[in-house]
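Task: fold both queries, return tokens.
Query 1:
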Amino acid sequence: MLDAFSSDAIPVHLLTREALELYLSHLTPDGVLAFHISNRHIALGPVLAGSARSLDLSAVEEMHSTTPDDAVAGQRPSDWVLMSRDRTAFNPLVAAGGWTRLQGSQTSPLWTDDFSNILTVLTFR
């Protein structure tokens, strides 16, 4: 599980294709990578979608929203991405609702050890 992306300083090297290959090398074939990518200013879902596409991984995303009562209790919205080599691993999560297939396209950014561009994933809310 990676949880290093909530500040304004994104550790880009943790999201490159090569980093994901390293993580996968330590997982069993049915292992799951979990990324907590909540961030107010940077949309990291497209970056992970590009990596998932390039590595032929199954990926799902869940954007957990909170109610005003949750906020009073200290909870905050969160954004999670799960990845696996197993193409069917997340079918139960998607079927149950809340989780959706991580949507990427051929133009989803692919960050590597040689290239990343944080400007392409900035959001202005």
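Query 1 returned. Query 2:
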Amino acid sequence: MIWSNEISRRTFFKAATGLAGGAVLGSFGLALHEPHELQVEHVEIHLSRLPPALDGFRVAQLSDIHFGEYMGADYLRKIVAAANAQKPDLVLLTGDYVTAPSYSHRREHNQYALQIWPCVEVLTNLQARCGRLAILGNHDCHTNPAIISEALREKGNAVLRNQAIPIEANGARVWFAGLADVLSQYPDPEAAFRPVPPGECIVTAVHEPDYADELRKYPVDFVVSGHSHGGQVRLPGVGAVYLPRGARKYPMGYYRLGDLQLYTNRGVGMIGLPVRFLCPPELTVFTLRSSTQHGT
């Protein structure tokens, strides 16, 4: 009987070890496959100051592309095709088109910034009747922000740095503002919002979502961010294994901060390792709703 129990124990531990190993291998396989499982997130945002004529206005957001080692032109073309299939009225690009390795010398940063050119060649195919707006992220600013901005503008993207511009459609308008990167430049909300007449709706793009706490001081309706990658690797019951500075309070998804609404996009690219786990890449499509139109 003792011998039989010992055999049973050995059989049990061998089976348990095999199951655990299989789970680890399965998880590793998922982590390698998930980076190519783009999710299109549809989010309705109700805004009290949005003109009723703009009810249903659609904004597609792409963030954190990190073109280069882990993001090639072929996959980015698929992402662009997915965005075009949503038929957005406006495309909003929220930074980190390239990657600045932390170990590189400053004189090498230009070569990483030059990855923006093949990236924008693909992004040029994004289609929206009201155009494309862009801000820079911390990686863009740590390489060469002048190169990044030049490439984006040359290919038809309006680059906003502490600026707001009106977007007009259906005889009405909403203001879109873009702020300088929080970690490497100087965001200036007062300068950005100065041209906006009192009472008009403002949607603001800033790369780092935690800056939304500062923006609660201003007449901003909705903030759109990226930067976090959602953590890129998330564990059940734990959440993100790592989050960058500037995205630890509001790492992913929708948040309501009093009168201010915030959304943090998980991004489509990767840094560090070419893996995602329980955190797939994201294309976000916002449908802006007029609270006046819907009585909310």
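Both queries returned. Flag for query 2: The domain at 37-294 is CATH 3.60.21.10 (Purple Acid Phosphatase; chain A, domain 2).
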